[in-house]
Amino acid sequence: MDAQWRAPPSYHWPMTRVFSGIQPSGALHVGNYLGALRQWAVDQHDADCFYCVVDLHGLTTDHEPAELRRRTLETAIGLLASGLDPDVCTIFVQSHVHEHSELAWLLECTATIGELRRMTQFKDKSAGLESVRAGLMTYPVLMAADIVLYDTDRVPVGDDQRQHIELTRDLAVRFNSRYGATFVVPEPSIPTVGARVMDLQHPERKMSKSVDSPLGTVNVLDSPDEIAQKVRKAVTDTSAKMAYDPDAQPGLANLIELLAASTSRTIDDIVATYPNYGSLKADVVEALTEVLRPVKARHEELRGDPSAIAQLLEKGAAKASSVASVTLRRAQQAIGLLPPGVI
Ligand code: AQP
């Protein structure tokens, strides 16, 4: 066997390798920013980071082709506006790197239908649909392929992705134990505050790009007036008791977390400071407006030059492919596929 295909992990020592992705399923919201993107921008200075707009994941539910293309570009602009620097990290579109789909098949043949059916996002997203696309059940396997292709050590994500990272780890371990050391087994990295920003109108469910909740979702590009209107109308409760209790007072807990995540204040400090919900909401408006201000300003600069974005995505894809192709070949060899030209 060709030794380069079966070199044991970790392949990129001493740099930690980081990978994460985002679906082009709608406008970026403050949950995406505080739960994930802000951390991505920090990580790019300490690790070898690969960040991806996962457009193939956008095919799992109803979509308009032209709209998917528009959102893919818009999401890439959102990543740059969030502080990602293409000279420091690798930014690309998933479908530009064919290795993602190819490795996904090898991992589909490693996963079981039972474990995919147990994914809570599959249960939530398929609930009530008359016809469920097979891809909606198998996309966590594609996500596992996205991650292990880059010999990823760490995956910065929001709390909603915890179960998918667990599946990725299970598949990597299973593949390694069946076919020999092939994949690095990644660790999730989930922020302590802001990991699950809830919908302002329905604080029992997370803020989501693809759910139509105009007053419940604070978008990264919202104006200060829109932020103020949404936060002022945010659902709280009638008890008026200042406490951090996500089960009993989920709306209030969400506002407290939003303030903690957008400032350097602790939850205890916030609970002790505010006499009533009104003054808390006023400070949440101010904190969100401030934290999003630089993102909006960069977005304004970037949106005027889509061809520059297209070029940097092409460059990112070439770099990503140079890493992904090595991992894919290693996995193909391990699982028993005959390399072309070899007898
Ligand atoms: N509400 C949230 N709070 C904190 N983090 C969040 N993330 C998503 N929603 C929240 C994190 O953002 C990153 C990118 O998310 P994604 O595009 O992979 O899709 P998602 O997790 O399914 O998020 P959305 O915004 O709710 O999209 P749709 O509506 O398409 O499902 C991830 O790291 C995620 O954890």
Task: Describe the protein's topology.
Layout: E1 17-22, H1 30-43, E2 48-53, H2 65-81, E3 90-93, H3 99-108, H4 113-117, H5 120-126, H6 134-148, E4 154-156, H7 162-179, E5 187-189, H8 224-232, H9 250-262, H10 267-273, H11 277-302, H12 306-335
Parallel strand pairs: 1-2, 2-3, 4-5
Helix pairs in contact: 2-11, 3-6, 3-12, 6-7, 8-11, 9-11
The structure holds adenosine-5'-tetraphosphate.
Adenosine-5'-tetraphosphate binds at residues 22-23, 25, 31-32, 35-36, 157-158, 160-161, 195-197, 206-211.
Description:
With 343 residues, the chain is mainly alpha-helical. The chain has a domain at 2-193 and 306-335: HUPs (Rossmann fold). The protein contains 12 helices and 5 strands. The strands form 2 sheets. It has a 3-stranded parallel β-sheet. The longest helix is centred in the C-terminal third of the chain and has 30 residues, at 306-335. It is globular. The relative contact order is 0.16. It binds adenosine-5'-tetraphosphate. Adenosine-5'-tetraphosphate is lined by residues 22-23, 25, 31-32, 35-36, 157-158, 160-161, 195-197, 206-211.
Short account of what is shown:
This protein has a domain at 2-193 and 306-335: 3-Layer(aba) Sandwich (Rossmann fold), CATH 3.40.50.620. 50% of the residues lie in helices and 6% in strands.
- Extract low-pLDDT stretches: 1-8
CATH homologous superfamily title of one domain: HUPs
Written as H for each helix and E for each strand, in order along the chain, the element string is EHEHEHHHHEHEHHHHH
Shape: globular
- Give the CATH topology of one domain: Rossmann fold
Major sheet, described briefly?
Answer: 3 strands, parallel
Q: What fraction strand?
A: 5-15%
> What would the average pLDDT be, to the nearest integer?
93
Quaternary assembly: single chain
Secondary structure tally, helices = 12
CATH class call of one domain:
Alpha Beta
- The tally of beta strands, per DSSP, is 5
Helix content: 40-55%
